[in-house]
């Protein structure tokens, strides 16, 4: 328990260190808090003096009005600065949220892809949205309360000491009791708040999966079980949330009881002192007001702690992402890659999961300009080869060289610029058709875009869309067919016109006639440039200069279509089985 607490304090200190707005804002906030609290403290003193002057028989009405006017002025100024304090803390909180979101976003692009293989996307989204809000809101409310609380408490002690040191002792001695009570109750709440953040994250992850798989869910009639699972989580969240709120709601009434007892004791003691002539009536009223002011922050402590605990729970989840190891950084003085160099795999070893080796010892050289086809059964490691070439993952052993230099010596962006890539999973974004095609070359002219679309065989279907090239595609192209999406991504690389190409099942969903046209355009484009084509339809790879046959992460055969058929090995078997199924 103790250990967890220090953890929380550590997290809070770290969060404070990253607060937005810089020192200036904080100093401003502190100044406003002090002025506003001083106003609130001055008022009771004036009330006391006013009452005493009445009791001394000095019943001048103008004098009384003077006190009232002074009070109004002081309360007004105090309220004004209270408002200013709110504005500044608001500002700090939004700046903090903005900075956290920015850092998280940065982090996401710096994290290795293996992070995304392991994490539910919705959970990550939840860190961006819910946790960042929890941190900024929690700090906003918590710190504003804490700041004015500290000033008020300290100030009240000074005023009380001036009036009666003995009674001040009584008031101050009661304070630890209410703090202890608040902490005792708060400790329980804290664990529930942490659980609450975790569950919200998991629910987001699950909801996202259901969204993605909504058709499969219906097809496999899993709607009911999914609903059950979601309800289960929802119920747990309800339970945890209610408990968290229950415990934090206990503390306010709890401390209030303690404070009221203290108030009564002070009242009695003050009356006795007054009877003995040690304290004036005005003094009693001032003192009682001061003692309430002194105690109020202590009952607020539980509120403050609730806010801060929620903030700490959120911050912990944010820091967990921020603390992950980045991909190996790019070298600063990285040389530019030779985009027209040979590609060599030298003793490459790689596994996504260390306990399941995939590529054990891969050796291969591809001279520039060759059209390479990679074939092999599902799961053989074809896409993996591309992942390594693009440095989406780094090799575990050996090296991949481009133009004789290890690709790890280049900046990733420079390396990736050498390749135009069409992936197995098409990726489109919400925007117009034109923007999607021009993704890698935003300054392309309309003519260039249309030419690329024509070359990719996408022009016809785009022409039939209501808005043509200006048609907006939403939700990653959900309103297009799979084949249409592929044509758009092919048009995209054709427009980019890179020195090398990678096509991973780029035409798998396109009808055979269109595919043939695309293939011809592709051949024209890749003539004299290195290209990698992965295809299950062997008809698409027959013309390649070099065919790599993969099995279980190894290249088991290399050659041309004819030489491989003559070899009568893995390729010939693959070819025969395809013929059978046709
Ligand atoms: N991100 C990943 N994390 C862990 N394992 C992975 C990952 N991607 C692929 N694998 C595993 O690596 C192996 C090779 O996968 P790869 O995607 O390279 O196959 P492929 O030859 O492209 O198959 P397909 O023809 O189905 O596209 C498979 O066994 C797969 O389970
Ligand atoms: Mg693949």
Automatic annotation (TrEMBL):
Keywords from the named record: ATP-binding, Membrane, Nucleotide-binding, Transmembrane, Transmembrane helix, Transport
Compartmental location: Cell membrane
Keyword Transport: yes
Topology class, membrane: Multi-pass membrane protein
Domain ABC transporter as annotated: residue spans: 343-577
InterPro entries reported for this sequence: AAA+_ATPase, ABC1_TM_dom, ABC1_TM_sf, ABC_transporter-like_ATP-bd, ABC_transporter-like_CS, P-loop_NTPase, Type_1_exporter
Membrane spanning residue stretches: 26-52, 64-85, 139-159, 166-185, 261-290
Gene Ontology MF annotations: ABC-type oligopeptide transporter activity; ATP binding; ATP hydrolysis activity
One Pfam family matching this protein: ABC_membrane
Gene3D superfamilies with a match to the protein in the record: ABC transporter type 1, transmembrane domain (1.20.1560.10), P-loop containing nucleotide triphosphate hydrolases (3.40.50.300)
Cellular component, GO annotation: plasma membrane
Principal localisation: membrane
Domain of life per record: Bacteria
Domain ABC transmembrane type-1: 27-310
Record's keyword annotation contains Kinase: no
PANTHER family membership: ATP-BINDING CASSETTE SUB-FAMILY B MEMBER 10, MITOCHONDRIAL, ATP-DEPENDENT PERMEASE MDL1, MITOCHONDRIAL
Protein name: ABC transporter related protein
Organism: Ethanoligenens harbinense (strain DSM 18485 / JCM 12961 / CGMCC 1.5033 / YUAN-3)
